[in-house]
Design brief:
mainly alpha, about 200 residues
C-alpha cells in the first residue's frame, strides 16, 4: 500500500492522536505532580492545566476512535473541533509572539493581582517580595530574613519575554500539527476501506 492510501492515512492519523494523548497525559501529570509536591499552590492554575489536558485527551480519543473505526460522524466532529482549536491556538500564539514590553507588564500585573496563591508561589520560587514595591509583611521568601529582597516585577520582566517566545513557538508548532490533523481527517473520510463491501456507501 503506497503512502497516501487508506492504510497509510489511517496509521498517520492514529499516530498523531496517540501523540496528542501522550501530551495530554503529560499536562495532567505535570499539574498533579506540581500540586502534590507543593510547587504550585494555586488551585486555579492546576485546574486550568488539568482542564486543558482533559480536553486534549477527549479530542484525541474521539480522533483515535474515529480513525480506527473509520467512523464518519466521529471524524467529522473531530475535524470541526480541531479546526476551532487551531484558530484559537494560532491566534493566542501570534499574540504571545507580538506582545511588547508594556503589554507584557500589564499582563504580569493583572495575573499578579488575580491570585494570592500565585503571588506566594512566585515570591517563594524567585526569592522576591511584592510586585512593583518590596513588601516584607507577608512574604514567604527567604530574602526576608536578610532584608535583601527585590520587587518581583524586576525578575519577572527578565523572564516574561523568553517565556512568551517559548509558549508562542510551541503553540505555533502544535497549531500546524492540527492543520495536518484536519487535512488527514478530511482525506481519510473520503477514502474507501478496501476491506469493506465495495458496494457499501461510506
Amino acid at each position: 500500500m503506497v503512502c497516501g492510501g487508506f492504510v497509510c492515512t489511517k496509521n498517520a492519523l492514529s499516530a498523531l492522536n496517540i501523540l496528542y494523548v501522550l501530551v495530554s497525559l503529560l499536562l495532567i501529570g505535570v499539574a498533579a505532580w506540581g500540586k502534590w509536591f507543593g510547587l504550585v499552590s494555586s488551585i486555579q492554575v492546576v485546574a486550568g492545566v488539568i482542564g486543558v489536558g482533559v480536553f486534549l485527551f477527549f479530542v484525541a480519543f474521539v480522533g483515535l476512535c474515529g480513525a480506527l473505526k473509520h467512523h464518519q460522524v466521529l471524524l467529522f466532529f473531530y475535524m470541526m473541533i480541531l479546526s476551532i482549536v487551531f484558530v484559537l491556538q494560532f491566534s493566542v500564539s501570534c499574540a504571545c509572539l507580538a506582545l511588547n514590553k508594556d503589554q507584557q507588564n500589564l499582563l504580569l500585573e493583572a495575573g499578579w493581582n488575580k491570585s494570592q496563591g500565585t503571588q506566594k508561589d512566585v515570591e517563594r520560587t524567585l526569592n522576591c517580595c511584592g510586585f512593583s514595591q518590596v513588601n516584607n509583611s507577608s512574604c514567604p521568601a527567604v530574602c526576608v530574613t536578610t532584608s535583601s529582597c527585590v520587587a518581583c516585577a524586576d525578575i519577572l520582566q527578565n523572564y516574561a519575554g523568553q517565556v512568551l517566545q517559548f509558549v508562542g513557538g510551541i503553540g505555533l508548532f502544535f497549531s500546524f500539527t492540527e492543520v495536518l490533523g484536519v487535512w488527514l481527517t478530511h482525506r481519510y473520510r473520503n477514502l474507501k476501506d478496501p476491506r469493506s463491501n465495495p458496494r457499501a456507501f461510506l
